[in-house]
Amino acid sequence: MQHFKLELHLNSRKNDVDELIRRSIKGDGRAQQALYQSLAPKMFSVCKRYMGDSDLAEDVLQDGFVTLFSKLDSYSGEGSFEGWARKIFVNTALMSLRKNDVLKESDDVSEAWGLAGDDPGAVENIGYKELMKIVSELPAGFRTVFNMYVVEGYSHKEIAEELGISENTSRSQLQRARMLLQRKIKEL
Questions:
Q1: DSSP letters of the chain?
Q2: How far, in Å, CA of 141 to CA of 163, rounded?
Q3: Cα(94)–Cα(49) distance, rounded to whole angstroms?
Q4: First to last CA, the chain
Q5: Judgement on whether residues 115 and 167 belong to the same structural domain of the protein
Q6: Could you tell me the pLDDT band of residue 5, with boundaries at 50, 70 and 90?
Q7: 2 assigned to some structural domain
Q8: Please, what sign has the CA dihedral across residues 33, 66, 88, 54?
Q9: I need a surface site. Which of 90, 100, 122, 169 has the fewest CB within 10 A?
Q10: Domain count, the chain
C-alpha cells in the first residue's frame, strides 16, 4: 500500500493529489480529511467573499464540501484540482445567494450612469486584506457581481445567466459596487 503525507498541500505533486482523490472516492476518511484540511482555508475565503458574513460562509463551506465529495468521481484529472474545487464553492455560494434573492432590489445600469465616482484610482493605495474587508461589507448584490466579474472573471452575460438578471443590471451592480468601494476607501 502506498503511503503519503496527510498534511498535503494541493500544490504538491499531482500524483500525490491524484492518490488522495482516488482514496477519497473509495471512502478513505483520512484522505478525505487531508483534502478538507488542504482546501478549507482557501475555499472559506472564497465563501466569505461572496457571503460577506463568517457564519454564512461557514454554512456555504460545509455545503460545498458535501457537493465536492459527492462529485469527486467526476473530476477528470485535467487542469488544477483546486480550480475545479473552487468552481464548486463559487456555485454553492451563488445558489445560496439566489435562494435568498440578493438582487431583488437591483437597478438597471441606465439609472446608475449619473453616479460615476470622481477618483477611479482610489483603490490603488490599499492592500488586499483591507480591500477584501471592504468588499465583504458591500450589499450582497453588489458584492456578488463584483466578485464574479472582478475576481472570478465572469462576463456580464455569464453573470446575468447565473443570477437570473439582465446584463444591464449586472453592469449597474458592478458600477455601484465600484463607487461604494471608492467612497469607503476615501473614508479610511
A1: -----SS--TTS-HHHHHHHHHHHHTT-HHHHHHHHHHHHHHHHHHHHHHHSSHHHHHHHHHHHHHHHHHHGGG--S-S-HHHHHHHHHHHHHHHHHHHTTTTTT---GGGTGGG--S-TTGGGGS-HHHHHHHHHTS-HHHHHHHIIIIIS---HHHHHHHHT--HHHHHHHHHHHHHHHHHHHHH-
A2: 10
A3: 11
A4: 57
A5: yes
A6: very low
A7: no
A8: negative
A9: 100
A10: 2
pLDDT, mean over the chain:
83
As a whole number of angstroms, the distance between CA 56 and CA 99 comes to 13
CB atoms inside a 10 Å sphere around CB 158: 15
Beta carbons of 52 and 137 less than 8 angstroms apart = yes
- Say whether both 87 and 121 belong to one domain: no
Grid cell, residue 21, equals 482523490
Kindly state the cell numbers that stand for 30: 483520512
The per-residue pLDDT for 118 is 47
Statement: the pTM of the whole predicted model exceeds 0.90: no
What is the residue type of 18? D
Output the nine-digit C-alpha cell for 95. Answer: 445558489
Does 71 share its domain with 133?
no
